[in-house]
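User: I've been going back and forth on whether these two constructs are worth ordering. Before I decide, could you fold them both?

Assistant: Sure. I'll take them in the order you sent them. The first construct and its structure tokens:
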Amino acid sequence: MEQIELGDKVRCKYSGFEGIVVADCRFINGCVQYSVLPKCKDKNEPPKEEQIDAQSLEIIEKHKPVVVEEENGGPNRRGIRQRGF
């Protein structure tokens, strides 16, 4: 079974509920549940997330991390009287 990670798009096998995994909860008895947030249907009302057991979920699409390369504006320069140097 493939490991579910935060950001994965999942579907409940029994209810058909679909959404993105936004949190996970691990209980002391070994039960693992995920908070699944569905797509927003109404712009005036935020969607309600559902807690679903791990064994009830199947992965539709794996989360692809977004890599953002930032430019820092040039080489680092130290000040002449910088404290500690």
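The second construct, handled the same way:
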Amino acid sequence: MSSRSKAVPLVIALFALLLCAGPAAAETYTVTRTDDPVPGACEPADCSLREALMAANGTTAVDDIVVVPASASPYLLQYEMLYLPISDEVEVRGAGADKTVVKGNGEESIFGTFSNRSVLSGLTIAGGQAAIQNSSGELIVRGVSIEGNRWNGGTAGIISNGPVTVESSFLGFNRTENVSGGVIFANAPVTVVNSTIAHNTSEKGLGAISGNSSVTLVNSAVVSNRSEAASMAAVGGTPLTVRNSVFADNRDAGGLLNCISTGPLTSFGGNVSDDGSCGAGGGDKPNVNPLLGPLELHGGTTRVFSLLAGSPAIDAAQQCPAVDQRGVPRPQGSPCDSGPYEFAAPPSPPPGDSEFAMKVGKKLRLTKKRVIRVPLTCPASEVSPPCRGRVRIGNLPLRFDGPHTLQMRFLSARFSIPAGKTKAVAVKSPRSTRIHLPTERGTWKVLLRVAAEDAAGNKWEVRKKRARLIRR
């Protein structure tokens, strides 16, 4: 009797601990292989992305993390052409969109999310039909690049029945052969902050973002999106709200058209647009050229348009996020800038800085993938780095096919190289023109032009009429 009576308080104590216990601790799974085999267990030294997601889906913990490390090779979608499933509250965390690529097979959506809350960060998601199909839960994409997806059955980027938040991301070069938006279609609220939406196309719908619920854009850029139908803008919502954003060169079959809404279209000001379709809030600048620079990383992990000196977007915004798309603090001036890029004036050159020259390698190499690599060196003695400019290659032994061959005299590429570094600048053919480069091994003479300047504005140019192009 005495022993049993002593055990009762212990049972009560254990029961009380169980009642007070919180949810199971979150687990972290690290992907260790880039292929997509028949799924099994996620072992520490043998774990595919699909296996890591299935392991995270199978736990009782919330907010599990699937780590996808940097890789020179993409993480592939191969297993029976099935999407990668997320059915629990999971964050898929890459090492940065410039370092971690998840690539589809062109025959299926890449991620399918079915949880209350899914987060994807630090990834490039490319080569699928849709990048992400989201059910009714909350979807957050942060520091993600969604590009090169194409689907004739729906939107090629994000399709969602739940709320979508896009932060510090690049959504571009996707094509939808349907009536939905080129890169986002949602039946729930969409919020886009500090992001670039560019070069997306819809055959019959809005060029970029289409929402049957509210769509809100904050400090974002919507540029060069296309609808092949009439009266179809780049972005639309029910309603549509825009603030501190940049709109440029978005077109439908009839010409420029940036914004449309089936509900109220509200501007909170600070918007810069090359037409007048995005509202008229305080501080808006409609019908102006935003003066955008090149679409590059610019020190970040996702592509963004820079602002050229004199852009009307500079110092045009109020109440901006604390950092821009790249993570650069705002403001750099006073006040902050419209769009996802915060402009910083180049520093004053050191006294007497008037010299600038680069070094061009003796050999240009043509790779098996039909890319011409031009070795350029920014000297260690350069006092106002980086060395920036453009490479142009002409008089090539090429055969051209396509609608724009008459306008094409050069292949070209931009570059930015730190002091003391050498970079093999990759010169590729544009998407709009098919170019057939030599397939046999050999050496050819080509015209090479390099025009560059340093941060102090000192300029340098070289022209070689007989540069050596080598195919090994």
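Notes on the second construct follow. The first strand starts at residue 28 and ends at 30. DSSP finds two helices and 45 strands in the chain.
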